[in-house]
Write a structure and sequence with these properties.
The complex is a heterodimer of chains A (about 180) and B (about 400).
Chain A: H1 2-12, H2 16-38, H3 41-57, H4 68-86, H5 107-126, H6 129-140, H7 145-152, H8 156-179
Helix pairs in contact in A: 1-2, 2-3, 2-4, 2-6, 3-4, 5-8, 6-8, 7-8
Chain B: H1 4-13, H2 20-38, H3 44-53, H4 56-80, H5 87-94, E1 99-106, E2 113-119, E3 125-132, E4 143-148, E5 151-156, E6 161-166, H6 171-182, H7 184-196, E7 200-205, E8 214-220, E9 229-235, E10 242-251, E11 254-264, E12 286-289, E13 297-298, H8 304-320, H9 324-329, H10 337-344, E14 348-355, E15 359-360, E16 368-370, E17 373-379, E18 382-384, E19 387-388, E20 392-395, E21 402-407
Parallel strand pairs in B: 6-12
Antiparallel strand pairs in B: 1-2, 1-11, 2-3, 3-4, 4-5, 5-6, 7-8, 8-9, 9-10, 10-11, 13-21, 14-17, 15-16, 16-20, 17-18, 17-19, 20-21
Helix pairs in contact in B: 5-7, 6-7
Classes of the chains: A mainly alpha (about 180), B alpha+beta (about 400).
């Protein structure tokens, strides 16, 4: 967090290096989050783009009160929600790009994981947006239920409920997929 | 069947990576946005200028204006050019500071030490409120300390205790040493003194762009007591007040970042309530007031061991007499009579069988002893004579001539 404070301070003074460092540090995290919320690569990229451009535009006046990671995740969530609202049809084309997976050296394992993650993405896109947001922001965004509640303007118990229902729904979707 | 844990694990595994193409697009736009935010008028100015300058009459008029401006600027040069920045300007500006909010960040720790300061007309600090995060003292968790002249309040959040004490004689010294590091008033004066003694090298960079802060890099020389330190102060070019201090330490031949001090809310009056914890702490917090003169036992002519033993003797004598008020005052942090009575419960102390000898306990914060005591007591109609091994007696933190019980158990 301290490094972030310093980077933000340097951005306020117009440092390009600091801005690049922030982008490098959070780009993948925000893209994963945006893609989890929107289910679509191009839309997720647009959201990440808009978040960083907006951040850079206000960098001279920006005051960091909490964590930068949390702030950027909140921005992604807000923009993703706007995008969802503006969509006329909720049905989303699942992205053709396979999800990246992390650290397995075993090719067979990687194929299995890729399949699992593709099914997971499909399942995530099928649960209600508010539940999706609670699940993604908590598990992938690393946000606390209290922070998500503040973001969505609802109580912590509501968020907890959305999170639990979201996970249950995901489990049911993935299990039914396996049974087929 | 997939379990919830399995799904959580999978979600955490999701890890999308941006493409080089996306990086190029986003970074290009981001850096452009950053530049534009620095020079807000840069986009509109060339277009307006180009439109106006198309007219030949405008060109002539503009030339005349430029010549006049140059002549005027030469004439007024001596009067209008501001003096170059000097460290004395910040010292002078600091004299007007009455209130200040400080955040001291340390590398590797999320939560800062935070302080609110109030100064008098002479610039002397009169009130301090400090928030000490848990990482500073994991045993105590986070603490809030308020210092006002000769009284200190310490709120220990984990122990749910608010202690009001007389400020120690050395509190002011400790405070001064702390302020030398974090308070710009004393920090800048100190740098100025060190510079005149040749102990630090001060480099000042005053940007031509007046929106940019003045930077003062202070490198501590081998002649100083901390030759491995460097500080970078960012100074507001208008107010000449310090906004940020970055702290560095020389390691492996390079100055590595150690922390940062943020200085906010200059002269924003601080609510008086902030300097009194009495009404702020939650209802379940126990209040102990150690400012009264009759807390503990005065040592008088007794040796340390005798004083410690005497405290225990008087404590049990008070309990035998069922004088819980007197017994409560023999604690380091006075215990209210009703609380002590509750604590003792249905146990009736009948007599002291033996006390001592007092054994020095080096683990206590101030000088203190373990004082074993064998007593006869009655509980539920049954008599018993236990030996209490864990009684700890120590000097009062702020009144070393007085002694009190710190703990009755191990």
């Amino acid at each position: 967090m301290l490094e972030d404070k310093l980077l933000v301070l340097k951005c306020r003074r117009g440092s390009r290096d600091a801005m690049c460092r922030i982008y490098e540090k959070y780009k993948d995290y925000l893209l994963t989050l945006a893609k989890g919320l929107l289910g679509e690569q191009a839309a997720a990229e647009d959201v990440v783009h808009d978040v960083f451009v907006s951040f850079a535009s206000s960098a001279r006046q920006f005051q960091l009160t909490g964590s930068l990671r949390g702030y950027l995740a909140t921005c992604v969530s807000n923009l993703a929600r706007d995008k969802i609202r503006s969509r006329t049809r909720q049905a989303e084309a699942l992205d053709s790009v396979n999800p990246s997976i992390s650290d397995s050296d075993n090719p067979e394992q990687r194929v299995i994981e890729r399949e699992e993650l593709t099914r997971l993405r499909q399942a995530i896109s099928q649960i209600p947006y508010e539940q999706r947001e609670a699940v993604m922001l908590h598990l992938k965004g690393g946000m606390k239920f209290r922070e998500i509640a503040n973001l969505q303007g609802v109580s912590v118990s509501t968020i907890h409920g959305r999170y639990r229902y979201g996970l249950d729904k995901l489990r049911s979707l993935l299990n039914s997929e396996v049974e087929k | 069947m997939r379990q919830a844990e399995d799904i959580k694990r999978l979600i955490k595994k999701l890890n999308d990576k941006t493409s080089a193409q996306m990086d190029k697009r986003v970074l290009g736009d981001v850096l452009r946005a950053l530049e534009e935010s620095e020079q807000p008028s840069a986009l509109t100015w060339p277009n307006i200028r180009r439109t106006i300058m198309k007219s030949p009459i405008t060109k002539l008029a503009a030339a005349a204006v430029i010549i006049t401006a140059v002549v005027l600027s030469i004439t007024l040069w001596d009067r209008s050019t501001p003096l170059a920045y000097g460290i004395e300007q910040t010292i002078e500006a600091n004299n007007s500071v009455r209130y200040l909010h400080i955040k001291n960040f340390t590398a590797g720790e999320d939560e800062p030490r935070e302080g609110w300061l109030e100064f008098d007309q002479d610039g002397q600090v009169t009130k301090v409120r400090a928030h000490m995060p848990e990482w500073l003292s994991p045993m105590d968790e986070s603490m809030v300390i308020v210092w006002k002249g000769d009284v200190e309040q310490v709120w220990n959040k984990r122990k749910k205790v608010l202690a009001t004490m007389k400020a120690k004689d050395n509190t002011k010294e400790q405070l001064t040493a702390f302020l030398k590091k974090v308070d710009p008033k004393t920090a800048v004066k100190h740098i100025y003194e060190l510079q005149s003694q040749g102990k630090v090298k001060v480099e000042i960079n005053e940007p031509t762009d007046k929106a940019e802060p003045i930077t003062m890099t202070v490198t501590y020389l081998p002649e100083s007591s901390t030759p491995d330190k460097r500080k970078v102060l960012y100074i507001d070019p208008t107010t000449k007040l310090v906004n940020t201090i970055e702290l560095y330490k020389l390691k492996d031949d390079e100055y590595q970042y150690e922390g940062m001090i943020e200085l906010d809310d200059y002269n924003q009056p601080i609510d008086a309530q902030l300097f009194d914890l009495q009404n702020e702490v939650p209802p379940d917090v126990k209040h102990f007031d150690q400012t009264a003169n009759d807390v503990g036992l005065s040592q008088g002519q007794l040796s340390d061991e005798q004083a410690a033993t005497e405290v225990v003797r008087q404590f049990f004598q008070a309990l035998i007499a069922e004088d819980y008020t007197r017994a409560g005052k023999l604690f380091v942090l006075t215990m209210p009579a009703n609380q002590l009575q509750q604590h003792i419960g249905r146990v009736k102390i009948l007599r002291i069988v033996s006390i001592g000898p007092a054994v020095l306990n080096p683990k206590l914060e101030t000088k203190g002893f373990d004082v074993p005591c064998k007593i006869e007591l009655e509980e539920n109609g049954k008599r018993n004579t236990p030996t209490l091994e864990g009684i700890k007696v120590q000097q009062l933190r702020n009144q070393p001539e007085r002694w009190g019980i710190f703990s009755l158990s191990n």
